[in-house]
Write a structure and sequence with these properties.
Largest sheet: 7 strands, mixed
Order of helices and strands: HEEEHEHEEEHHHHHHHHHHH
Helix content: 40-55%
Radius of gyration: 23 Å
Distance between the termini: 14 Å
Structural class: alpha+beta
Strand content: 5-15%
Low-confidence stretches: none
Number of helices: 14
Mean pLDDT: 90
């Protein structure tokens, strides 16, 4: 939520939304908090399915959404944009979700926010909820999106980017063999795997890798240097680490902060395991989204590393890496991606407690505190 754009009117705002979100929203409600004349980020929600009897009422949805908007420091204005290609099935209205938009505007005004725009974006046109008499405007007339250095362009929708890479059968076989060798030295990688049996020669690279894990924070930083080319044994070691809850937490804390914080996290986790002493709040709090905003590029590299790791890992050992990928997605503000990874994590390991806890955060709409900590310019 750090990109800031200037927009002179509704067309410029609509051109900017895919830049602010990183994708073109589909079946979504997008809220843009404003601070004076500048955007202060973007919040996207799934558009409630009108056919779902369990969907929240417009009032409940608007109340929950506005609580998130009001967490944005200095927010004093609001843009509402609904992305839906089909008309409202219940009313035949070409501008669907009108009751929801009215509730959002009502809650926003009650909170003291200036309503800047309330817009509907369809398959080929856009229109204004507050000007029912105006004809729809073609999307083809929207201006070009604002240029942002380093931004290659929006993804097709909010689901883009979740697909795992396809490294090939041989690459996965090499990692599987490396993991078996490592398990002969360190024990099983996860609750769904058994210790290898039989008297066989242990690959000396397994012993070397086990020694690397003696300095876990150094290993966790080194694998970020080449996320797309980690060796089979380094990948296997990462699978093993991420299936150990204590070590997984260290990895996530370190990737969201620094190697020094990783050292502290490892010492605190080991101390907690041995004596029950509480983990310091500035360490453990990172896992629930408290603390300074992490470097999004560092988190992005870690997520790229994990996506490749998951694709190479044996299926019964993917639970920990998938849950870690879900957390990184959540930390980056990609709750849609996080939910999809959590589905896969719980399919791989239904007893994974970390996945259950993280799902509670995601499904409640909770975002990390750092998602709202936008500095006032």
């Amino acid at each position: 939520m750090t990109t800031i754009v200037h927009a002179a009117g509704a067309p410029e705002l609509l051109a900017a939304i895919p830049v602010l979100t990183g994708f073109t929203p589909r079946d979504s409600v997008v809220l843009l908090p404003f601070r004076r004349s500048r955007t202060a980020g973007a919040l996207r929600f799934d558009l409630p399915d009108a056919a779902d009897p369990t969907r929240p009422s417009p009032e409940v949805f608007a109340s929950a959404a506005m609580r998130l908007v009001l967490r944005v420091a200095g927010a004093d204005g609001l843009v509402v944009a609904v992305y839906a290609d089909a008309e409202d099935a219940a009313t035949g209205d070409a501008r669907p979700a009108s009751a929801l938009v009215e509730a959002l505007l009502r809650h926003g005004q009650a909170a003291g926010l200036h309503i800047i725009e309330a817009l509907h974006v369809g398959a080929e046109s856009w229109s204004d909820y507050r000007d029912r008499e105006a004809p729809p405007h073609p999307l083809s007339d929207l201006p070009a999106p604002p240029l942002v250095p380093g931004f290659a362009g929006p993804a097709p929708d909010q689901f883009s980017g979740m697909e795992l890479p396809r490294p090939g059968l041989f690459a996965a076989e090499y990692v599987g063999r490396a993991l078996l060798a490592l398990e002969r030295v360190l024990g099983p990688a996860g609750p769904n795997r058994s210790a290898p049996t039989g008297a066989v020669r242990i690959d000396p690279r397994a012993h070397e890798t086990a020694l690397l894990l003696d300095d876990l924070p150094s290993f966790l930083d080194e694998v970020l240097d080449a996320p797309e080319t980690a060796s089979p044994f380094a990948t296997a070691a990462l699978v093993w680490v991420l299936n150990r809850p204590i070590l997984r937490d260290v990895a996530l804390v370190q990737w969201a902060s620094s190697i020094d914080q990783g050292d502290r996290a490892l010492a605190a986790q080991l101390d907690h395991s041995a004596t029950g002493k509480e983990v310091p709040a500035d360490v453990g709090g990172i896992l629930i989204g408290l603390g300074p905003r992490p470097d999004p590029d560092r988190l992005g590299v870690a997520l790229a590393l994990l996506r490749r790791t998951i694709a190479l890992a044996p299926r019964q050992a993917r639970g920990g890496p998938l849950a870690a990928a879900a957390w990184l997605s959540w930390a980056l503000g990609r709750s849609t991606h996080a939910a999809r990874y959590l589905d896969q994590a719980q399919e791989a390991d239904p007893d994974l407690s970390f996945a259950r806890l993280l799902r509670t955060l995601v499904e409640s709409g909770m975002l990390p505190d750092w998602a709202f900590g936008v500095a006032v310019p």
